[in-house]
Design a protein that fits this description.
By secondary structure, this protein is α+β, with helices and mostly antiparallel strands. It contains 6 helices and 5 strands, in the order αβαβαβαββαα. A hairpin with a 2-residue loop joins strand 4 and strand 5.
Length: 167
């Protein structure tokens, strides 16, 4: 049994992690083995994220102290939290890692929901966040879209000039 001082330290540490992260995912880790939990931690570390397990009450207190509204009733079962980084790339990378891990280990880990930029996100929203491509891919797609009208115009003008020369 942990004493009040230890609980205060846990809450303080959780609050620090929650406030430094713009993305927090709540995960039900029922039947998750230690080996699989370590795999999740490693995957999240690569994405500059973190995975922490604590009592729901302590998580709720830390979230409240961090200025987030969290309904403990939404936290079903054994709960762990995955925290994303401080910028959008690391937040999306963390969301991707969580979604991939949950998909591969669906019998052991379920996404309950999360907090994205200070607001509650349900399971569907967390999965949609995970599906967003990285910044580099989005910029490449944008550049491709922007060049298409110019390319089409060039093709049309080329065809018009060919027809003009053949007449």
């Amino acid at each position: 049994m942990i004493n009040r001082k230890q609980k205060e330290e846990i809450v303080k540490e959780l609050k620090k992690k929650i406030t430094s992260s713009n993305f927090v995912a709540f995960l039900n880790f029922h039947k998750l083995s230690v080996k699989k939990a370590m795999e999740l931690r490693r995957a999240l570390r690569k994405a500059n994220g973190d995975y922490v397990v604590a009592k729901k009450t302590l998580i709720a207190v830390a979230a409240k102290e961090a200025g987030l509204e969290l309904d403990k009733k939404k936290l079903d079962g054994e709960v762990g939290i995955a925290l994303g980084g401080d910028n959008e790339d690391t937040m999306l990378a963390s969301a991707k890692e969580i979604a991939q891990f949950a998909r591969k280990n669906s019998e052991m880990l379920k996404i309950i929901g999360g907090i994205w930029n200070g607001e509650w996100a349900d399971v569907a929203q967390v999965k949609r966040l995970a599906a967003i491509p990285g910044r580099e891919i989005l910029l490449t797609q944008l550049a491709f879209i922007l060049t298409q009208p110019v390319s089409s115009l060039a093709r049309v003008l080329s065809e018009v000039s060919k027809k003009g020369q053949n007449s």
